[in-house]
Design goal:
The structure is a homodimer. By secondary structure, chain A is α/β, with parallel strands linked by helices. The first copy, chain A, has helices spanning 5-14, 22-34, 37-53, 70-73, 88-97, 125-132, 147-160, 185-193, and strands spanning 55-56, 63-64, 78-85, 102-106, 138-141, 166-169. The first copy, chain A, is built from 8 helices and 6 strands.
Chain lengths: 199, 199
């Protein structure tokens, strides 16, 4: 079916979003065309505004609409403790837990030679700048527990240890509520290796 | 987690789309903020443009960016045969089949007393205008085979028959490729009632 030009373009742009196939893109497009006009106008404006207003924080690299970001500007956060993550969504996930009182550093990716992502493509230089001030005591490497995330953590650990800062890695193990019999052997191995004395 | 204002607004607007929950909205928002700027710009523009350019065809009610729409303007289509559907997507679905050479009429909904949708809310008046010209021979009622669609078809049949036009309903039955044992009993009943002589 030849959709009208503007409809076809809208479906095409929607289908470029991750996880949105052509059927879903069609459904969303016709929803936007049938809903009250302000639904489409608000979405269009929100996308444009977010792209204009949201920048990377010059300190930690997280996405923010003020400079520095809310976490970096918060005087109650412990600047001696930096948690390094791959993605802004990881910051959101850790903030939900509420127990972390340090600050963040967002790499915007992980090392991936196959995807052409080397250290130069990641937000690493500004991390070294932060460390140069000498107030940081510990770096928690909270990259994902997969091949790229582990490689990135190893690379950063080798880079940062000579500076004299404590470098830690988040624990691998069984997720809370998981059943042992359904865990994969690698996670199970990590959980046993990482066992802790009950006090 | 308090997202930056513009990010929170974007997530909120995305989450208003049908089938998009808050997790998916977050994922889409961060994709739009991390992808090359033109991805977000093009989507924002496509939504705005589609809303500005796309109107209902004054003849059939289908969504179009020209007046009348491509089907209504096509001289090779049979204007004596009108297929009545609920939604512009239904037109797209039937056009894919390529075997239908008539024209369409889009109701933009179905009768639904619970949702407050009566005949006045549907695109029915312009259908009567089309019939008044006297050239239409058959109306195919292709509303959905569910409670609302069937009620709408029944309502239209009663309204249109006195005008002296042939009114038909699309066949109900087993979808092609379906297994009999998995069919629900209502579909199976319709398939048996609607049986045809093999010639």
């Amino acid at each position: 079916m030849r959709y009208a030009g503007a409809v076809a373009r809208l479906i095409g742009e929607l289908a470029r979003l991750p996880g949105i196939g052509s059927k879903t893109a069609q459904r969303l497009a016709f929803f936007l065309l049938s809903a009250p006009p302000e639904v489409a106008e608000n979405l269009s404006a929100a996308i444009r505004e977010a792209r204009i207003q949201v920048r990377r924080c010059s300190v930690c690299g997280n996405l923010t609409d003020r400079e520095p970001c809310a976490v970096c500007a918060d005087e109650t956060r412990d600047r001696a403790l930096i948690c390094v993550v791959q993605d802004p969504r990881d910051v959101a996930a850790i903030e939900k837990y509420r127990g972390f009182k340090g600050v963040y550093h967002v790499l915007h990716g992980a090392l991936s030679p196959l995807a052409g992502l080397g250290p130069e493509e990641l937000n690493i230089k500004s991390l070294l700048t932060r460390l140069a001030e000498g107030r940081v005591k510990e770096i928690i490497l909270a990259t994902n527990p997969d091949v790229e995330g582990d490689a990135t953590a190893l690379y950063l650990a080798r880079l940062l240890k000579p500076i004299g800062v404590t470098v830690t890695r988040i624990a691998h193990g069984l997720p809370v509520g998981a059943h042992l019999e359904y865990a994969d052997e690698i996670t199970l191995g990590k959980a046993i290796e990482g066992r802790r004395v009950i006090e």
